[in-house]
Amino acid sequence: MLKLRHLILIASSLLLVSQPYAQGCSDAGFCTMGAMKPDQNYSKRIAIKLRSIELNYYKGTSIISPVISAATIDFNLGINDYSAFQIKVPYMWITGNLGDNAGLGDISLSYTRLLKATNNWNVNGTLGAKLPSNDANATISNEHTGGMESPLHMYYQTSLGSYDAIAGVSALSGEWLLATGIQIALTENNNQFVWSDFPNYPDREYLEKNNRGIELKRGIDVMLRVERNWRFTNFNFSLGALPIYRITKDEAIIPGTTERGKIEGTTGLALSILGSFGYHFDVNNSVKIIQGIKLVDRDVNPDGLTRDEVLSISYVYKF
Predict the structure, then answer these.
(1) Is 12 left (phi over 0), alpha (psi -120 to 50) or beta?
(2) Element (H, E) at 56
(3) Which residues on adjacent β-strands are paired with residue 293?
(4) How far apart are CA 279 and CA 13, in angstroms?
(5) What is the CB-side half-sphere exposure of residue 128 using CA atoms within 13 A?
(6) At 207, which helix (H) or strand (E)?
(7) Mean per-residue pLDDT for 54-79?
(8) Are strands 214-217 and 221-231 parallel, antiparallel or unpaired?
(9) Per-residue b/e over 280-316, b at no fewer than 16 CB within 10 Å?
(10) Where is the signal peptide, in residue numbers (predicted)?
């Protein structure tokens, strides 16, 4: 049974971060997978085969009107002393000026292996994939569409609609986490959003500005995570930076044509700073809060991934 001081500690922590700050990851998924995930456990006495179930909730604001929330089950299963599988299954709901949408998000699968262990560092490698839960072309019928079923913008979609390949490596010590990874979209999605499908929306300029993602194929993302962790008997906290660089341009159908083209302004740096706090009730049960804020963003974001602010809260059960 939880002690009163534990409950007070949790309540105080939640109040401190009740503003919608960020998990810090406005990426397509790889910065919370395997070797690249934040606030990783480190112990010379615990093998990688540790198993856990994590229940996570976050709520994020985008650079335009949509607010994105998600509840995620994150299951980690160690298969021996050197390797483990991870599966993440999110349920998402989005609300914004164009309407609301909800449904299953993309499923993340990864395999992580301990590559090298020294007295002070563990080096881990991860291979993974993201599987689309739908084709990213959910529709809506409301006053803005004149009662017609019209595809929503990518910011309102619960899936990226593409099959992605992911790889990464990290070096982890008691104080530091250094990680890098790459995510490659292998296919385009089927999003068909065009501004003219929302003839009754009052701000036409707003719609035209975001009319750039028909059958979108995202560019390649490369990430780097640098995180400093302070660990104590029952709690820990960390501070870090998360730059994500899109090294190739997004491509999509050019509006008004049937031809595909590169989208200018979609390459470049997205940079977040982030912090975390974790409390361990015992060896099996813990909670953690991860927060951050976006400092730098790319000029054009047709994939709908950018988050200005997000709050992430998790309960972790190890077995």
Answers:
(1) alpha
(2) strand 52-61
(3) 273, 309
(4) 10
(5) 34
(6) helix 204-209
(7) 91
(8) unpaired
(9) beeeeebbbbbbbbbeebbebbbbbbbbbbbbbbbeb
(10) 1-22
Residue type, 251: E
Under a CB-based contact definition with an 8 Å cutoff, are residues 228 and 273 in contact?
no
Residues 6+ apart with CB under 8 A from 312: 22, 23, 56, 57, 58, 289, 290, 291
Q: What are phi and psi of 288, to 5 degrees?
A: -150, 150
**Average of per-residue pLDDT across 106-134:** 95
Q: What is the mean pLDDT of residues 179-184?
A: 97
> Which 8-state DSSP code applies to residue 319?
-
Which residues, 6+ apart, have CB-to-CB distance to 19 below 8 Å? 309, 311
Contact between 112 and 79 (Cβ < 8 Å) = no
Span 206-229, average pLDDT: 91
HSE-CB for 292 with a 13 A CA cutoff: 27
- Which SS3 state, helix, strand or coil, does residue 294 take? strand
pTM given for the model: 0.88
Looking at the domain that runs over 4-318, which CATH code has it been given?
2.40.160.40
What is the Cα–Cα distance from 212 to 195, expressed in whole angstroms? 10
Look at the chain and count its residues.
Answer: 319
Map residue 169 onto helix, strand or coil. strand
The owner of tokens 């890098």 is: 180
Q: Can you tell me the distance from the alpha carbon of 111 to that of 268, in angstroms, rounded to the nearest whole number?
A: 28
CA geometry: angle at 74 spanning 62 and 79, to 5°? 145
Cβ-based neighbours of 103, under 8 Å, separated by 6 or more: 91, 92, 93, 133, 134, 138, 158, 159
Q: How far is the CA of 195 from the CAs of 152, 200, 203, 244, in angstroms?
A: 10, 10, 10, 29
For 268, the token pair is: 């470049």
Least confident of 15-24, 60-69, 136-145, 298-307: 15-24
Rounded to 5 degrees, φ, ψ at 12 are -65, -40
